[in-house]
Amino acid sequence: MSVTKSVSEKVKHMDPEQHEFHQAVEEVMETLEPTVQRHPEFVKHNIYERIVEPERTIMFRVPWQDDKNNVQVNRGFRVQFNNAIGPFKGGLRFHPSVNLSIIKFLGFEQIFKNSLTTLAMGGGKGGSDFDPKGKSDEEVMRFCQAFMRELYRHIGAETDVPAGDIGVGGREIGYMFGYYKKIKNEHTGVLTGKGLEYGGSLIRPEATGYGAVYFAAEMLATRGLDFKGKRVAVSGAGNVAQFAIEKVNQLGGTVISICDSGATIIDEAGIGNDKCRYLMELKNLRRGRVSEYADIYKTAVCYPDKNVWDVIKEQGIKVDVALPCATQNEIDGSLAEGLANNGCICVAEGANMPSSPDAVRVFQANNFLFGPGKAANAGGVATSGLEMSQNSSKLSWSREDVDSKLLTIMKGIHKSCLDAAESYGKKGDYVAGANIAGFVKVAKAMMAYGVI
């Protein structure tokens, strides 16, 4: 059995119930086999086995009081996976689906994503099974403060710097940062995604969506194409989806879809700038459902209890570019076939691992331009890294400066993926290129430290 295969099998044996983590490890390990031949020192020092084991895994209870003074209890997590190239860095997710497997998969992916940015950031992830949907601001505040009462012991500006993720936006970051500041009596860059007024960076809310579109544009350019006149399918309706739509509009494309957990909207007239602003108000301020969009815009059709990719397949809707921006494994092999049959040529993952292994195989078999999440959605953490730099130097950069740096980073990630893929005999394979480029840098740093 190959070295990388044996690592995957050991992970499955040790943690048999952690299916999302198995998927992430297997997807990375199967592409790293070419590095085994070129870097025997990695095998000798057991880097492959060491990199799939978190440095530490922290689990804790989070008791808090709801508005009726009832005591509720949730479970909190922080997985500090690898800090070989910098402080642990990765978001916090508040969602009922959160468990240790999901946090480990996200933290593992974060190692390679952060490495690709070229910034000094290691990989980590955290969160809770708390659901902010339907909660009052006061309930969210009390939960965030209770969560930080334990988390503060394990994080710091040079140790571990969390950010937002699903269910954790500016409101939640503000509550957590304020409480950390109170109990630690210091104002440091311990969290990113902060408000501009207290140390945040311009472009941070936009960065993941913008970055995914920038990466897709780089992929299209390899075939002499761009976004002008392209029909684009976007899933999700949160920050990533919203700003992906905004950037596609700027580059001349037409976005035809959004979705949330309740429904999918197809708007053949396009979700232009005014409609995108309405979506932002609907989701960010009123915290409403996308079905309300169809009540306002009569060009839209609402499909209850369907995701975007189901609707595209069932209705035979033509798309050129797909930007999955919702959650993991939202596209399976059958839905990927639906995209192929409806003219799609490019997929850039705005979410983390939204395509199942079967879906990825379909994309590659049909010669798609396929940008995996650890490359295509690295813009968010890249701009978090830029926020860390601004906090360290007590400076604030202009919107144009941050956006320019983000574009440069995404272009650099695209080039690194292609260069690594070609160097290791996988020309044009963005999945292999992203994994290899991210891994080799971290592995060499781990080698430099000896056995620790």
Task: Walk me through this protein's architecture.
The chain has 452 residues and is of the alpha/beta class. It has two domains: 3-186, Leucine Dehydrogenase, chain A, domain 1 (Rossmann fold), CATH 3.40.50.10860; 207-367, NAD(P)-binding Rossmann-like Domain (Rossmann fold), CATH 3.40.50.720. Helices cover 49% and strands 15% of the residues. The protein has a five-stranded mixed beta sheet. The protein has a five-stranded parallel beta sheet with strand order 7-6-11-12-13, sandwiched between helices. The longest helix has 25 residues, at 399-423. The radius of gyration is 21 Å and the shape is globular.
- The count of DSSP E runs of length 2 or more, i.e. the number of strands, is 13
Q: Label the structural class.
A: alpha/beta
Helix content: 40-55%
Overall morphology: globular
Sheet of most strands: 5 strands, mixed
Please give the CATH class of the largest domain.
Alpha Beta
Determine the number of helices (DSSP H or I, runs of at least 4 residues): 19
Under the CATH scheme, the architecture of the largest domain is 3-Layer(aba) Sandwich
CATH superfamily of the largest domain: Leucine Dehydrogenase, chain A, domain 1
Order of adjacent strands in the largest pleated sheet? 1-2-4-3-5
CATH topology of the largest domain: Rossmann fold
Strand content: 5-15%
